[in-house]
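Students often ask why we bother encoding 3D structure as a string. The short answer is that it lets us treat folding as translation between two languages. Here is a chain of 152 residues written in the first language.
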Amino acid sequence: MLFRRVVLAEELGRWTRSSARKELDLEDEVVLLLLGTVCARKGQLDLVKAVSAIPLSSRSKIRIYIVGAFMEPKYVSKIKRELARIPADMRGRIILTGAVPDTTLYYSASDIFVCCSRLESAPRVSWKLWPSNCRLSVPPHFWYPGARAGGP
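And here it is in the second language, the structure alphabet:
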């Protein structure tokens, strides 16, 4: 495990937090990242629907990135329809990127990693968080190693 953690730290080392945030044109926003193939079993739509519950006073401070290859066109269409229905002040704050060449840019810029998966208890993408300072938000079902102890 230690070897894998070192490799992950080197991967993330391509970007500092400030250089990643500058590349993504972020200032002082709290950045949530949901990374993985965009498909129904990953539950990205749940996060999009949940943004309506964010208090008005906090909306301008949040940026959400949903990063991953679009594998189910009908599901992606559902997400896009939901994005059109969310409050106007949040529409530009949720970015659906599709596949990206370098996911470490998003890991490095993020404050909170979100896992909405309906099937996976510990998706592989979350293990890249180990060397970062990113917090982890997971669904209450399924055991998630380290989630209760403050992270993997």
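Translate back mentally: Residues 2-51+58-137 form a domain with the Rossmann fold fold (CATH 3.40.50.2000). Keep this in mind for the problem set.
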